[in-house]
Amino acid sequence: MNDHPQNGTHAVEIENLTKTFGDFVAVDNVSITVAKGEIFGFLGPNGAGKSTTIRILCGLLKPTLGRASVNGLDVATKPEEIRQSIGYMSQKFSLYEGLTVEENIDFFSGIYGVAKDKREARKDYALTMASLKDRRGSLTRELSGGWKQRLALGCAILHEPPVVFLDEPTSGVDPIARRAFWDLIYQLSEAGQTVFVTTHYMDEAEYCHRVALMYAGKVIALGPPKQLKDEMSQVCHLLQLDTSDPLETMRALEKLPGILDLAVFGAGLHVTVSEAELAIEAIRKALDERQVQIRRLEAIQPSLEDVFVALIEAEERKPA
Length: 320
Prior knowledge:
Blueprint: E1 10-21, E2 24-35, E3 39-43, H1 50-57, E4 65-70, E5 73-74, H2 79-85, E6 86-90, H3 101-111, H4 119-129, H5 145-156, E7 163-167, H6 175-190, E8 194-198, H7 202-205, E9 210-215, E10 218-223, H8 225-235, E11 237-243, H9 246-253, E12 259-265, E13 268-273, H10 276-289, E14 294-300, H11 304-317
Helix pairs in contact: 3-4, 3-5, 4-5, 5-6
């Protein structure tokens, strides 16, 4: 995956953005710039502040402090213009189930003010992009989740918005449909559209040019996925450990020096350590004493999920 495009122009600019609701700080002094044509991933646990930030960028909420602009338009002073110049799709994007695929596209063309002489061409584009030409007369309620999602994206970009916000767009669809949806996202990016996407699927975050991890209203990591994984590898090492008794393994390793973190990962464990060789030796000894059989023990490359778990746990350990 290449780094994000370097064309000197920013589609989204966020500077010292803060949003409070009473005493609660939902977004805490966030600064990010997103390049034109970039696929930018916005990640973090529920309640981290992702959706609040997106609602500010879409002109739906006013910032408490700081500034943000989308397509060069200020979110605080030009919310109407912003709403007309962006595409927005969430997991709750409302297609009309009782209308056909084609009727939904016609309806949203009108809502988004697509010029009448362009509507047929835009409809053809949406049907082609979403591979729905053969299903144009099907009732929307008869489509599978993955096809509905493609139709929703087609409807959200009928007015050719330069920036598209996708808020958890692949929630609840199967992995094959998710992968096909990401192929569409790449097409948008290659055509010069900027895609700002929130997701809680860590494998999807790997497809982004850059990602920001939000936690408790703050951005705690920002950069290309590979860079974030490389940075983690420089400060600690990750071991894959599969044994005959995972519970007994965790008990044995909790008190071992040099073990920074233990996490269940599939049927085994991911063990974060400060020094791989010394830790492997100590783990073998500790498990041998408890007669736990080791099936696999080796150093591995961290995934983005490992990086984010480590970063969030480090944040939680910080004194309040």
